[in-house]
TrEMBL record, chain A:
It is found in: Nucleus. DNA-dependent RNA polymerase catalyzes the transcription of DNA into RNA using the four ribonucleoside triphosphates as substrates. Specific peripheric component of RNA polymerase III which synthesizes small RNAs, such as 5S rRNA and tRNAs. PANTHER family: DNA-DIRECTED RNA POLYMERASE III, DNA-DIRECTED RNA POLYMERASE III SUBUNIT. Residues 191-222, 229-244 have a biased composition (Acidic residues). InterPro entries: RNA_pol_III_Rpc31. This is DNA-directed RNA polymerase III subunit. GO terms for biological process: transcription by RNA polymerase III. One of its GO terms (cellular component) is RNA polymerase III complex. The lineage of its organism: Eukaryota, Fungi, Dikarya, Ascomycota, Pezizomycotina.
TrEMBL record, chain B:
Residues 398-410 have a biased composition (Acidic residues). It comes from the Eukaryota. Its main location: nucleus. Belongs to the RNA polymerase beta chain family. It comes from Phialocephala subalpina. Residues 167-501 form the RNA polymerase III Rpc82 C -terminal domain. Residues 9-69 form the RNA polymerase III subunit RPC82-related helix-turn-helix domain. This is DNA-directed RNA polymerase III subunit RPC3. DNA-dependent RNA polymerase catalyzes the transcription of DNA into RNA using the four ribonucleoside triphosphates as substrates. Specific core component of RNA polymerase III which synthesizes small RNAs, such as 5S rRNA and tRNAs. One of its GO terms (cellular component) is RNA polymerase III complex.
Length: 244, 671
């Protein structure tokens, strides 16, 4: 093919038909091309047959059920008008991972009374609502399935809290510095001294974890929880966050 | 298996559509990067470990992710299963197929399985029990009623635990669902490696020497893989008997056997057999078997093709024949790593007799093959042609006045419609018998034969009639069937590869015609038939002007459908002394179709998202938990209802387009 179109014209080095002579009547196409030019051969698809209609209803029904079920996670996707095409991981990840509560739409985001019927938005699947056969999963996921993930950490924290509370109570009764230090020593002797440091570390970890699942940031007024008074919260203990 | 970018995009969108964002983010990265442990996943997705573990649990539960725990390091690697993700697009079809074959109960069960993923029988039972309770309490929250009011089934079609068990058992027998075993969670490549390593250690002391040992190793791996796979298969008979022991006496057993023998043919007869006493082990874990469902879908596609080419009744008979074969075909395309590629010359086959026995009695084989009225046709001549088989069918096609299809009404009382088995009376829900309307013009079918058939043995006559249809199928250009024996009034087999190729050709032809017009279509067909051609020859063969040929070919080359090969006549390779040969590559065209289809499907899914977001206001209303189980007509006002209808119609159209495109993917990729 190459070379066939070229060289056919009167002089070489020239496109067929086009010359360098001045043409007063020439008009350049300066208009930008259509973004969505009409399709040259567009036809209406055939109407749905009964069978297709049935299949589609099945599909819609299934999807609807899944979306109501415990495994579905709501989209947190940011700007819906952003281009669907992404280049590279960074850009792909940047479009998600926003904190829904931080990016709340101030006009429509404030919860109203009628919103109590709106389906719950979920960032993590609620695994406790569905039967699982543990043996089918790799071992590292077992704790997640059982909901015991982070249980140890939470226990540690709870214990530390109790200790603190006891300490504070003690302080009320007997304010002398000496008794307090003695008490502390006793507690340390009974309790697990070496876990103390571990506690601290774990607390940090827990805190970091909690930053992500935003349901857990305990504050005294949480507009998002206006209607659900925390009855079915995520299975994480909230005692971790409260102290900080 | 590596897939193209379009396929990856589509799979990610499908997972997103079904299971939400968290899972789809993980899945996308797994598809793009291949196998990863959680640590690296976290690096790529920027999700924390807790989110990842939750997401992966969902993905594994739904069978979308393989995993492999490395025994040496103890790390678990996760790998995406793109086939299962693509299967989500087919969910509607699979559920629909279960319904047409086994009634609403099966639909419900299959849907539940899609919903729950890998589920043990006892969990399924529990799910149904809780649902029943909810129905009793009048609590609409968890019931399976569709909010859009498409399909108002207030009561669950599965009436009891026994019913559930028999439905499950039947689905297992057909293979639509399969028991889950541990080896399924290993990706095919991992399984292969594991088996190979095991055999190497065991028999070869760590490594192979020479070509002979290597071949030996390959063979052994293959055998082992085959045995692993056969372990997975549902051995209904082996497991059923001991389980049946307590419940079922011999009578019921035989009853069941008989039903099963034609059970695959009878449709929606299940209210007669609510509970056949089969009990499955409660710990048995099952999930949907996409491979087998694809086989069934292929049969549907083939039958539809036959309907298009020959006629409705013939296609119904063909569908039945394929269904007989289906039991012997576990998957459409054998895996070269596992299956022996050298197959028997004749694949699975069925006999005319079996087919005639299994055929639903609402299908009347006496109709469908065209006959003109007696005064228009020289009957004697026709019968002579009927005797000589192959010419007959061609004649039947070419004959001027053919009554194809519309003569085949289901409730036609005239010919041979008598039922021989009592339990077969009400299976009229055939996929192709959507509109069983009586023929418009006066029926002239087999007038001349009718008296004879009534007096002679009915069954034999039926076999004869069925055979005629089969001959018609075999004589078609597409070779729907091939005769391979004479037992039982003829044994038949189907060369799937050949006919699928024919179907692909037909599809590509249709596309060419649509996109490049008559001349483009003609040029491509010439190239296909004659191979590589020079432009001049093309002009001659196609009877098209030189200029037109050139522009058309250039256009098609731009689209990537045809291409040029240069053959220099001397070493100088000048343009003048080079032959330019045009060719049309069917495989290339097929891959292009597949890629474009994937792309189109993902665009449609994106479009769906946009449309939903636009109509968010009204859709949010229908999703409210207090009204979502009601018909929207009840609670929406006129404007809202109009909006809702509009968006619902749009969604339907888009989904319909997806399912049609999926047909193409099936044809070009999976069948």
């Amino acid at each position: 093919m190459a070379g066939r179109g070229r060289g056919g014209g009167p002089g070489s080095g020239q496109l067929k038909g086009a010359t360098w002579e001045y043409d007063a009547s020439i008009k350049l196409e300066s208009k930008p091309s259509d973004l969505f030019p009409p399709h040259p051969n567009l036809k209406r698809p055939a109407p749905l047959t009964k069978k297709e209609r049935r299949e589609i209803n099945n599909y819609k029904n299934l999807i609807d059920q899944v979306h109501r079920g415990p495994l579905y996670t709501q989209p947190t996707k940011r700007d819906p008008n952003a281009p669907a095409k992404t280049f590279g991981e960074d850009q792909f990840n940047r479009q998600y991972g926003t904190n829904r509560k931080a990016d709340m739409d101030p006009f429509n985001g404030v919860e109203t009374y009628s919103m109590r019927y709106a389906p719950k938005q979920r960032d993590l699947p609620k695994l406790s609502d569905q039967p699982f056969d543990k043996s089918l999963f790799p071992e590292e996921l077992w704790s997640t399935l059982e909901g015991t993930e982070g249980q140890e950490v939470r226990n540690h924290i709870n214990r530390a809290m109790q200790r603190k509370a006891a300490l504070l109570n003690g302080k009320d009764k007997d304010t002398s510095l000496k008794t307090r230090s003695v008490l502390e020593k006793i507690h340390n002797a009974i309790g697990d001294d070496d876990n103390e440091e571990l506690d601290e570390e774990n607390k940090d970890e827990e805190e970091r974890d909690d930053e992500y699942d935003d349901d857990e940031i305990g504050d005294d007024y949480n507009g998002e929880q206006y209607f659900d008074n925390g009855e079915d919260e995520m299975e994480d203990g909230d005692d971790g966050g409260e102290e900080y | 298996m590596s897939r193209s970018t379009h396929a990856v995009e589509l799979c990610a969108l499908l997972v997103d559509e079904t299971y939400g964002e968290l899972t789809s983010r993980i899945f996308t990265i797994l598809l793009r990067k291949g196998r990863l442990p959680i640590r690296l996943l976290s690096k790529h997705t920027l999700l924390n470990a807790r989110q990842l573990r939750h997401g992966l649990a969902v993905l594994i539960q739904q069978g979308l992710v393989y995993y492999n725990q490395d025994s040496e390091t103890g790390t678990t690697f996760y790998e995406a299963n793109s086939d299962a993700a693509y299967g989500l697009a087919r969910a509607g079809k699979i559920i629909g197929m279960a319904e047409t074959r086994f009634g609403p109960a099966a639909r419900d069960v299959v849907q539940k399985l899609f919903l729950l993923g890998n589920t043990s029988v006892s969990d399924l039972e529990a799910a149904y029990e809780s649902k029943h309770e909810q129905h009793v309490n009048g609590n609409a929250e968890g019931s399976s009623v569709i909010p859009n009011g498409v399909n108002e089934h207030k009561a669950s079609p599965v009436s009891s635990t026994g019913h559930l068990h028999s439905v499950l058992n039947r689905l297992l027998e057909v293979g639509f669902i399969e028991p889950v075993v541990h080896s399924m969670f290993l990706s095919p490549a991992d399984t292969y490696n594991k088996v190979e390593r095991g055999i190497l250690q065991e028999s070869f002391g760590g490594s192979t020497k020479g070509a002979k040992q290597k071949d030996d190793l390959k063979l052994r791996v293959k055998n082992q893989l085959q045995s692993i796979r056969s372990d997975r298969e549902w051995k209904g008979k082996g497991i059923k008997r001991p389980l049946n022991g307590g419940h079922v006496n011999g009578v019921n057993g035989t009853n069941k056997r008989r039903r099963l023998s034609n059970g695959s043919s009878t449709v929606s007869s299940d209210h007669l057999y609510e509970d056949d006493g089969t009990r499955l082990e409660p710990t048995l874990i099952v999930h949907v078997n996409y491979e087998k469902c694809t086989v069934a879908l292929r049969n549907e596609a083939l039958a539809a093709f036959a309907k298009e080419r020959i006629g409705e009744i013939t296609s119904l008979i063909y569908a039945q024949g394929l269904r007989l074969l289906e039991a012997k075909i576990p998957r459409c395309r054998p895996d070269s790593a596992i299956d022996n590629v050298v197959d028997l010359p004749d694949g699975p086959m069925f006999t005319t007799k079996e087919l005639a026995a299994a055929l639903s009695h609402n299908v009347n084989p006496g109709t469908g093959i065209g006959k003109a009225s007696g005064d228009q046709v020289n009957v004697r001549k026709l019968e002579k042609q009927l005797d000589a088989r192959k010419p007959k069918s061609k004649e039947g096609e070419a004959g001027g006045d053919i009554d194809m299809g519309d003569g085949g009404s289901d409730d036609e009382p005239k010919v041979n419609g008598n039922s021989k088995l009592p339990d077969n009376d009400n299976d009229d829900d055939d996929p192709f018998a959507d509109s069983p309307k009586p023929a418009k013009r006066p029926k002239v079918t087999f007038q001349d034969r009718l008296p004879a058939s009534k007096t002679s043995d009915d069954r034999e006559n039926r076999v004869e009639l069925v055979k005629k249809h089969l001959l018609l199928l075999a004589a078609d250009d597409s070779k729907f069937l091939r005769k391979c024996g004479n037992n039982g009034f003829g044994e038949w087999t189907c060369d799937f590869e050949f006919i699928i190729q024919k179907m692909q050709e037909a599809e590509i032809d249709a596309m060419l015609l649509e996109n490049f017009g008559n001349s483009g279509h003609r040029l491509a067909r010439i190239l296909r038939k004659l191979g590589k051609l020079e432009e001049k020859k093309l002009e001659e063969a196609g009877k098209i002007k030189k200029k037109d040929v050139r522009t058309k070919l250039a256009e098609m080359q731009m689209a990537g459908l045809v291409d040029i090969q240069e053959v220099p006549r001397d070493s100088a390779r000048t343009t003048q002394r080079t032959i330019f040969l045009w060719f049309f590559d069917q495989d290339r065209a097929a891959t292009m179709v597949v890629q474009n289809t994937y792309k189109a499907m993902s665009r449609i899914l994106q479009r769906l998202d946009v449309e939903r977001r636009r109509a968010h206001d009204v859709l949010a209303l229908t999703r409210r938990s207090d009204v979502r189980d009601l018909d929207p007509e009840v609670y929406l006002d006129v404007h809202q209802l109009n909006d809702f209808r509009a968006i619902d119609g749009k969604i339907d159209k888009l989904l319909c387009q997806i399912s049609r495109l999926d047909g193409l993917i099936g044809l070009f990729r999976e069948f």
